[in-house]
Amino acid sequence: MANKRMFNIKIVDSDAFLDMPLSTQCLYFHLNMRADDDGFIGNPKRIQRLIGASEDDLKLLIAKRFVLIFEDGVIVIKHWRMHNTIRKDRYTQTVYLDELKSLGIKENNSYILSCEIENDNHLVTKCQPNVIPLGNPDIDIGLDIDKDIDIESKNATVTQKETKHKYGEYQNVLLTDTELEKLKQEYSNYEELIKHLDEYIEMKGYKAKSHYLAIKNWVVDAVNERKNKTTSKIQNNNYSFDIEEYEKMLRQTPKFD
């Protein structure tokens, strides 16, 4: 069994956890430290007495579903697999195999009793309540952990925005790694496009929510237009001149009869 344990901040920083008395929170940490590699504890009452916690502290953890209790008194940390990931070469399977078989694992990696597993938003069967009445009626049970934090909602999706990096001589162009890769694939002159936008922002103070879209929408055309003007120059040995400028010069030259 591992000697080190970890805790998920989403659990211990939730209102459901922080609203509990400090003695209850302390008991939760001690239970986690003494659980086996699958999150089971066979002697929760001994640990409770060992640290000077009350029976109500253990009952409150059960009532708020931070721990699940079985008929034989064994408990399991509900969010054990969210707290800890143990390497296979260090993992020792629990001795409470019957209790382990009676558990399912939700999408967020928390344990759930098999009789509570949802099927088309309806419970397959209804478990017998494992909540022990509190000895102190003044303690407010409040919301359990499932209702208090959003991480167990099927509809809750966490989208992590990609970090944008700065590009160009003046570091004005902001692109994600994905956006940069797309530019590389679509445009062989992507560096020239970035350079053009970078200089334009530096000179004009141009602002855009998406520099990637700005490059695709107008920078490409602007760079191509500039290239077309450049290719219209006629090379004559080492001397070059612009056709438009040449025609303008001809119109301004006085004619002699």
What does this structure look like?
This protein has two domains: 144 residues, no CATH class; 89 residues, no CATH class. It has a three-stranded antiparallel beta sheet. The chain has a two-stranded antiparallel ribbon with strand order 4-5. It is built from twelve helices and eleven strands. Helices cover 41% and strands 13% of the residues. α3 packs across α5 and α10 crosses α11. β8 and β9 form a beta hairpin. The relative contact order is 0.09.
Quick overview:
By secondary structure, the chain is of the alpha+beta class. The chain folds into two domains: 9-152, no CATH class; 164-252, no CATH class. The chain has twelve helices and eleven strands.
Neighbour order of strands in the largest sheet: 1-3-2
Largest sheet features:
3 strands, antiparallel
Strand content: 5-15%
Number of domains: 2
> What is the H/E string?
HHHEHHEEHHEEEEHEEHHHEEH
As a percent range, the share of helical residues equals: 40-55%
Layout of helices and strands, plus pairs?
Blueprint: H1 9-12, H2 15-18, H3 22-34, E1 40-41, H4 44-50, H5 55-63, E2 67-69, E3 75-77, H6 80-83, H7 97-101, E4 103-105, E5 111-113, E6 118-119, E7 122-123, H8 145-148, E8 164-167, E9 173-176, H9 177-186, H10 190-204, H11 211-231, E10 233-236, E11 239-242, H12 243-252
Antiparallel strand pairs: 1-3, 2-3, 4-5, 6-7, 8-9, 10-11
Helix pairs in contact: 3-5, 10-11
